[in-house]
Amino acid sequence: MTATATTTPGEVLAPRTVSVARGYRFELVKLLAQWRVRILIGLCWIGPAVTVVVASGQSTLPADTLFGRQMHATGWAGALVVLSFAGSWFFPLLTSVVAGDVFSSEDRLGTWRHLLVAVRSPRRIFIAKSLASLTILLMCVPGLAVSGIVGGLVVGSRPLAGLDGHPLSPGDAAGHLLLAWLCVLAPILAFAAIGLLASVIFGRSPFGLLVPAFGGLGMQLASQVLPMPAAVRVALPSFAFLSWNGLFTSPPQLGSLIAGIAVSLAWAVTATALAYLIFMRRDFTSLANDGSVRRAITSGILPLLAVWALSAGVLAAATGATGSGIEAGKLQRSLATSFAYLYVVQSQELYHLTYTAPQLRTTAACTKGSDLVDQEGPGNDWRCTVTWRLPGVSNAIGQAVYQLDVSANGRYVADGDGPNQVNGYFVLHAPYGDAPNPLWQFDGLVDLLAPA
User: Fold this and answer.
1) 265-286 pLDDT per residue, tens
2) Cα dihedral: 106, 107, 111, 115 (round 10)
3) Which tens digits make up the pLDDT trace of 200-238?
4) Among 17, 115, 140, 181, which residue's CB has the most CB atoms within a 10 Å radius?
């Protein structure tokens, strides 16, 4: 005997809605069926390892990228170069491909009515598409991290010099690297949410696909070129792609890192809420939804600008950071600390001396341009004189000169300008053979939100 469902005359069966789980699986399969998404996932899992191994074997290193000049010394530097490059250029592009087209594709194909008939819930559709996009991102980001680490381990797991010169053991470098990858998840969520918002607003127009990529590029260029106060700069979600740099100093520069993560989460929540509200109110009967410039401004740009302004105001009030965040005092302390640690490394390589950084009592004096120029802000016209004292030797005082190129985000490159025996040459002639001179050129970092 088998039971059969019967209905009485005039009875109407209630339509069944599709669960979020089933809608999520359907949307995920749709995304994975796209060739560009599959290629992107494959590149994320393979590309970084190949790049690190190949670049580490070249005679010319990417010295303009953070940790790039250490790629011959340790494989952990190569893994950090992957993270640095991805934060500057790749992550906004990744979110554009994954999240910026997830709603627009239905407008271009004209499949909204079929999807609504099948699911019968715009809210479930929005949740399913958002979760599917997030899943693809979570497939790509760990791939970048793991692939970069594997490539670095192939090159060699040796100690890494931090951004203040202090040595990091392979275990410490690995821990800091994994924590840095966790920190960049917040700005990735922010740009993914911006992609969802653009995809909802612009419909079948290609602008939804371009907004996260060009928005990230615009934020990077604006933060590097325009003269912004430190609080305004940190309030951009793109800054959080760089704030992990503070993990590689001792003690860690956590102020800018925590602020960048909090700001990114605020952008992510706001953009997602706006996308949800606009999606729930849209007219699905229109087959020619090309978006509206007015709606893009009033419902997208203006609310996000308000979040930016509010975040900047809160940061300025909490930290007192009203200027550029780059002052002579900060540079002098950072440069003196980095030089002391690296001088210890050089002394061990050349003379097998066992100094410690505090024993050197290193100080620095920095000036920017001429006396008529304000002694603060980014630029390549900072000139510093470092002074140190050899322990146990009376009147043994050394001095070295550096030219500093300071970026608006607080990172600087110190280029040795003499004396030759200290920082004048790229290579040291040690007793065991030639070795890179750690004092010739090195990177440093200034915390923009720290007090002067």
Assistant:
1) 999 999 999 999 988 887 776 6
2) 60
3) 888 777 777 788 888 888 888 877 777 889 999 999 999
4) 140
16-20, 137-141, 413-417: segment of lowest average pLDDT: 16-20
pLDDT above 80: residue 429: no
What 3-state class would DSSP assign to 300?
Answer: helix
The answer to whether the beta carbons of residues 384 and 364 sit under 8 Å apart is: yes
* Boundaries of every domain in the chain: 20-319, 328-445
224 sits in the region (left: phi over 0; alpha: psi -120 to 50; else beta) called alpha
CB atoms within 10 A of CB 20: 17
Alpha helices in 184-301 (DSSP H): 185-202, 207-225, 230-234, 254-281, 293-295
Contact, 155 vs 56, CB < 8 A?
Answer: yes
**Sequence letter at residue 406:** V
Nearest by Cα to 328 from 446, 169, 198: 446
Q: Tell me if 95 sits within 8 A of 267, measured CB to CB.
A: no
Tokens of 214: 């060009």
* 8 Å CB contact between 317 and 230: no
Preceding peptide of 206 cis, ω within 30°? no
Q: What residues does 429 pair with on adjacent strands?
A: 434
The pair phi, psi for residue 435, each rounded to 5°, is: -145, 150
Query: One-letter amino acid identity for 437?
Result: N
The predicted structure's pLDDT at residue 2? 45
Q: What is the tens place of the pLDDT at every residue in 290-317?
A: 666 677 778 788 999 999 999 999 999 9
Q: What is the pTM of this model?
A: 0.89
Helix (H) or strand (E) holding 161: strand 160-161
CA dist 233 and 50 (Å) reads: 34
Are 195 and 211 a contacting pair, CB within 8 Å?
Answer: yes
Query: What single-letter amino acid sits at 2?
Result: T
